[in-house]
Design brief:
The complex is a heterodimer. By secondary structure, chain A is an all-alpha fold. In chain A, 80% of the residues lie in helices and 0% in strands. Chain A has seven helices and no strands. In chain A, helix 2 runs antiparallel to helix 3, helix 5 runs antiparallel to helix 6 and helix 5 packs antiparallel against helix 7. Chain B is mainly α. Helices cover 69% and strands 0% of the residues of chain B. Classes of the chains: A mainly alpha, B mainly alpha. At the A-B interface, helix 1, helix 5, helix 6 and helix 7 of A face helix 1, helix 2 and helix 3 of B.
Chain lengths: 160, 91
């Protein structure tokens, strides 16, 4: 684990040479787009799947074959959701750290919301009891998800 | 071969062949000095003059209030669930 981490950090080091916010085509800016893309890919299908699963339970009942098949897909989809969002968070964090000189309040708000959602997601996956209920309530709040989308739009439009 | 030695060798190979290294700024580079920080510092001085703090400050305050509100709501719900669970059922 340590050598791999060491390698990844050092491979990112040359990217700092391109950390120039005036250029829109630099690799650091691209990391921001990677974060947005992986966040969308990891979240939208997962939300849609949960909606379809709920509708299936209500309309067809828990014993129906379609409902059971959908339930079987939950774990792989959850893993994809987690993996893509952790990749997105990491890309976003590196993007933010390398361009920290241009930090504004919108970017800071975005970083805070991203961190809260990622930490609660990780705790939710590995916790139980009251902590699990608490993190589930925070992680699933529409207010935070909506705030994240609004902040991403504001961040992108203010940087363009 | 140990994984750490292998990782070290791969690292040396990657860094030695990485074309990005050649793009590090030189002292005589007017546009970018020491990883571009100097240029950005100059730009920041210009940006600070034209920065509008009012509306964007509200965004940060709104975000913090939203997070604290959601956290408070979640804590309240957890406490309610716990108190309901600990109450003896009326027979």
């Amino acid at each position: 684990m340590k050598p791999a981490f060491f390698l990844i950090i050092l491979l990112l080091a040359p990217v700092a040479a391109y950390a120039d916010s005036e250029r829109q085509d630099n690799p650091v800016t691209a990391l921001g787009w990677v974060a947005i893309a992986s966040g969308l890919l990891g979240t939208v299908p997962y939300i849609l799947y949960n909606r379809v699963k709920k509708i299936s339970v209500v309309e067809l009942g828990g014993g129906d074959q379609i409902t059971r098949d959908l339930a079987m897909q939950y774990k792989p989809l959850l893993n994809v959701h987690m993996a893509l969002n952790i990749i997105g968070f990491t890309a976003g964090a590196v993007h933010g750290i390398l361009l920290i000189e241009d930090l504004d309040t919108i970017s800071l708000s975005l970083a805070i919301v991203m961190t809260v959602l990622t930490i609660t997601g990780i705790i939710l996956r590995f916790s139980s009891g009251n902590l699990r209920v608490f993190t589930k309530l925070v992680h699933n709040q529409v207010i935070l998800s909506g705030l994240l989308v609004v902040l991403i739009i504001l961040h992108v439009t203010s940087m363009l | 071969m140990k994984p750490s030695i292998l990782a070290g060798l791969v690292l040396v190979a990657v860094l030695a062949t990485n074309p990005n290294l050649a793009t590090f700024a030189q002292e005589d580079d007017d546009d970018r000095e020491s990883l571009g920080l100097t240029e950005r510092e100059r730009e920041r001085e210009h940006d600070d003059d034209s920065a509008s703090g009012g509306l964007t400050g509200l965004v940060l305050i709104g975000t913090i209030i939203a997070i604290l509100g959601v956290g408070g709501y979640a804590a309240y719900k957890v406490i309610r669930i716990r108190s309901k669970a600990s109450k003896p059922k009326a027979t």
